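Page 47, continued from p. 46.
Same chain as before, 267 aa.
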Amino acid sequence: MRVRAPAVAGSFYPADPAELRALVARCLAEAAAPPPGEPPAKALVVPHAGYVYSGEVAAAGYRRAARQAERISRVVLLGPAHRAFLRGLAAPRADAFATPLGVVRIDRAALDGLIDLPQCAVSDAPHAGEHSLEVQLPFLQSVLPAFELVPFVVGDASDEEVQEVLERLWGGAETLLVVSSDLSHYHDYETARRIDAESRRAVEALEPGGLGRESACGAVPVRGLLAAARGRGLVARTLDLRNSGDTAGGRGRVVGYGAWAFHAAAA
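Result:
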C-alpha cells in the first residue's frame, strides 16, 4: 500500500499522538456547540493554519461532523495548492494518507470514476508537502469512527470545473464535503476584518463572484462549492469568523479564518 507520510506534523500540529489528541479534543470542547434543530451539514469550509492559530475555528465545523459521525463514511476534501503550480485538480496516486493518529484510506473507486474529466489529474507531487488537506485529517480522525477519503489539491480551475467534480461525488448522507481555506492574508487587523466580512457576505449569499484570491487562498474550491450549494438549494451558516490577531499573535499582520456549514434550508 502506498501511503503519503505526514509533512507538517510537528509544525502545524503536534507530532506526538497523545498531545495531538488532547489538542484536538480541547479545540472541539471550546468551539461553539451546534444549536438545537440545526439540519445536518452536507459541506464545511474550514481553515488550515497551525492549530494554535485556527484550530478552534476549524473545530466549530468539525463539531457538526461529530453530530453526524455514524452516518458519514466518506469525506471529499478539497484544498488549495500552496507549493506547486497546478492546472485543475490533482488526486494522489497514494492509497492512504497517514497522520500521527493513524492511516486514512483513499476511496480509489470514487477517484477512478472521475478519470474522464479533463480537469482531473493523478499526481503525488502536488500533495507531497501540501498542508491544506493534511491539517484537516486529525480533526476528521477524531470525530468520525471510520471513513474513506477523496482528496484533491486544487490549482487553476473554473468554478464550473470544481462544481462538476463535487456534483459527481455528492452522494447522500454518507458523504461529507470539506473545503479547506484561510481568508485574507497579512493585512492589519482592521483591514482584515473588513475583507473577511465581505467574504462572509459572499459565502452566506452563495455568490462565487464575491470571492477573489485576495479574499481566500482557497477561493477556487470555495467558489466551486458555493456554485454547487446554490444549485442544490443549500444555505450557508457562519460558525466562526476570526483572525490570528484574535487567536495567537499580533495585530499588525494577520491571517483570517472562517468556518461555515452548508445544509438544507429549514422546513
